[in-house]
Amino acid sequence: xxxxxRTPHLIAPTIAVLMLLLLIPTSSEVEIDCSSLRMxxxxxxxxxxxxxxxxTQQLRxxxxxxxxxxxxxxxxxxxxxxxxxxxxxxxxxxxxxNGYHFxxxxxxxxxxxxxxxxxxxxxxxxxxxxxxxTLGFMFLGQLVDVILIATQVVGPADGSAYIIPYYGPxxxxxxxxxxxxxxxxxxx
Length: 188
What we know:
Elements: H1 2-23, E1 30-32, E2 42-43, E3 67-74, E4 78-80, E5 87-93, E6 97-101, H2 102-112, H3 117-122, H4 125-133, H5 135-138, H6 140-150, E7 161-163
Parallel strand pairs: 1-4, 6-7
Antiparallel strand pairs: 2-3, 3-5
Helix pairs in contact: 2-6
């Protein structure tokens, strides 16, 4: 019987603690600097935005330094301190283009390469004139140019990249230097 009498003394403090817990805002979101996020904590570019330029097939705002600022989105629960929401901007690599289409250069090389039309199109007038005067180096130079353009070794003279569809046949050359470490394979 005495234990029932003591219960009213415990009810009031318990209700007060519960009320305080309900008033304290609890959030599962964390505000951090989004430039320090690791791979898997964000997606770049934000797939809800159309950030591929249909004219150049590269990221919008691609500069001659082959970089573009794009909008990214952080995973749920992360709030960026720069924007106070889940979106932020990040610099991504891209290929700067200046209006030269890969398919046009390849077709000119195949069909009019003996007259140097491909080299004139890409901005190499001296080589184009030389190919024109020698009938594409007796068709051997035409064959070599078809291979060089198809493998994207020869590009536009201004240093830009070809306009190729974003998920098209882009060749990326991987080079090694003194800092490259090659792992031995099992069959070596």
